[in-house]
Amino acid sequence: MAESAQSAVGGDERVKEISPLRQALIRPELGGMVGTVAVFTFFLLFAFDSGMFTSQGVMNWSVVSAQFMIIAVGACLLMIAGEFDLSVGSMIGFAGMMIAIFSVTLSWPVWIAIMVTFVLCVSIGALNGFIVVRTGLPSFIVTLAFLFILRGFTIFLPQTIERKTIIGGIRDVAEGDWLASVFGGKIGQGFFVWLGDNDLIGTFERGTREGQPVVDGIPMLIIWAIALIIFGHVLLTKTKFGNWIFASGGDAEAARNSGVPVNRVKVLMFMFTAFCATVFATCQVMEFGSAGADRGLLKEFEAIIAVVIGGALLTGGYGSVLGAALGALIFGVVQQGLFFAGVESSLFRVFLGVILLGAVILNTYIRRIITGER
Amino acid sequence: MTEDTNFHHGDVQGQDPIIRMIDIEKHFGSVIALAGVSFDLKPGECHCLLGDNGAGKSTFIKTMSGVHKPTAGEIIFEDKPMHFEDPRDAIEAGIATVHQHLAMIPLMSVSRNFFMGNEPTRKVAGISFFDKKLADEITMEEMRKMGINLRGPDQAVGTLSGGERQTVAIARAVHFGAKILILDEPTSALGVRQTSNVLATIDKVRSQGVGVVFISHNVRHALAVGDRFTVLNRGKTLGTAKRGEISPEELQDLMAGGQELAQLEGSLGGTV
């Protein structure tokens, strides 16, 4: 039998050298990086004077972007594991409503209300995942069902209990609660006062808050977003479990044959997505001081769009948390930037559709490069 | 079994079998997939399991690799009776299967694929991380041994040819301490050149003392590397022959159940 001839020293002449450009193209974050640079360039050129880049403006789009980032991290890991969760938006509404009902209607201490809500929502995420892996149904259908089930309860419960669809008064009961401040508080106040005193950022010039900085701290929402991104990125790229996430989404059967506990990975990712949705909901409830039945509407799609802009493949097995975070940043900057620039807000949706289409086409092209198919 | 052929329970002299499957039966409801199959494998040999579609080859190797539990019969692995509860048990015991549909993920890099399910870890501050550097080094080394030149450990498996993917899968199984390597039709979808690469890989693996079970319905591929040949037909063993004791024509006849193919071969001019 002939020894394989290509074991000769040096390279295989059939392996074509690929250009650095093509090599860079297969990094999933590429689209997100290019998009981020493009978006910032655009707004720096055309909306610099609109107040978008003052400390208040920066804080404004940072908070909106951070909201998108929180749900995008969950959606990203889940999509790489090969599944979708369309119930994220309903989960946000449901989680917020549960916190409100537990803390206001039932008068539980807020920290207990938050903890019980987390347990409840993560369990629902586990149920989602369990049904998907057990029945083998597409997660699209299973989580679509939960989109309606959870939204239905979110409207039904407050109407039945309180005869209204918005429950307020959470800020009062959350006053001084240690866990509530983890979600609704701000940090770094001292630093911002210092910045204000040194004229590095603007301060209020009159009124009751005269002399205080216009931005008085970094909301915990942003801290959560950064923490979740770091956690997600490290988990995905630096751990054994991350390899299992890629494998489960790339080819579940092949992963199973290699001893990867695919079902466990998928269920855990559904739980993580639910966790992220609950973090979002808790931050929102603490910020607004109320929970509404229509909160989180369409968030599932916004999360998926951010993830796709960030370079993940809808079919699973490929993607990046950093990319998804950049996708969320683009999302937030554009949404708020158009507002600052005074552009009709409905045009934001047009932009969204266009950029989504562009991202999906780019991703398909990238996949062809990676797998070498034509 | 007929006595007038050289087809009998052949025996490679010397070593004891690493695994013995004795009178394995497997029923699925009213369907009898295996009706008493016996088989054994010694370290460092390549034992070919031949048979036409539906002969029970796949059911048999799934029993060996722990996917199915036999309805009746005994599995003796390293002189001890074994009862595999699931494929993981078999993998841990050292029985690795390279599937027809490869356990390779095209979008992932070769090194991530190589260590899929067996990732090396390194502890940093009490948290265990995937040791990518070590994984990359081992992957490059193992691939070089098998004669595959990678652009780098990050090259996606999707860019490899079918034969190279088979070789990666085989190298992976051997690296993780497989004592028995089950290859389920590794050459069925490959071209001539790629097939010879895979057969060369089997030869390398065998010389390292690993027992290879090579499932095929291509007699030529089997004869190229096999030490012994067992033919299955309709869930039964037709017998086992040693290398050199049987001609390709005889093997082909046995696989097809004899008679009909002999006639067909006559009319087709011996091309089957």
UniProtKB/TrEMBL annotation, chain A:
CC annotations in GO: plasma membrane
Membrane topology listed for this record: Multi-pass membrane protein
Location in or out of the cell: Cell membrane
InterPro entries: ABC_transp_permease (IPR001851)
First-listed, main subcellular location of the protein, grouped into a coarse class: membrane
Signal sequence annotation: none
Keywords: Cell inner membrane, Cell membrane, Membrane, Sugar transport, Transmembrane, Transmembrane helix, Transport
Identification of the protein by name: Xylose transport system permease protein XylH
Pfam families xref list: BPD_transp_2 (PF02653)
Record's keyword annotation contains Transport: yes
Function text: Part of the binding-protein-dependent transport system for D-xylose. Probably responsible for the translocation of the substrate across the membrane.
Annotated organism of origin: Ruegeria atlantica
Spans through the membrane: 30-48, 60-80, 86-104, 111-131, 137-157, 214-236, 267-289, 301-334, 346-366
Gene Ontology molecular function, alphabetical: transmembrane transporter activity
UniProtKB/TrEMBL annotation, chain B:
Entry EC no(s): 3.6.3.17
Keywords: ATP-binding, Hydrolase, Nucleotide-binding
One Pfam family per UniProt: ABC_tran
SUPFAM superfamilies: P-loop containing nucleoside triphosphate hydrolases (SSF52540)
Gene3D superfamilies: P-loop containing nucleotide triphosphate hydrolases (3.40.50.300)
Domain ABC transporter stretches: 19-259
Keyword field contains Nucleotide-binding: yes
UniProt-recorded Gene Ontology molecular function terms: ATP binding; ATP hydrolysis activity
PANTHER family per the UniProt record, alphabetical: CARBOHYDRATE TRANSPORT ATP-BINDING PROTEIN MG119-RELATED (PTHR43790), SUGAR ABC TRANSPORTER ATP-BINDING PROTEIN (PTHR43790:SF8)
Identification of the protein by name: Ribose import ATP-binding protein RbsA
Species of the source: Ruegeria atlantica
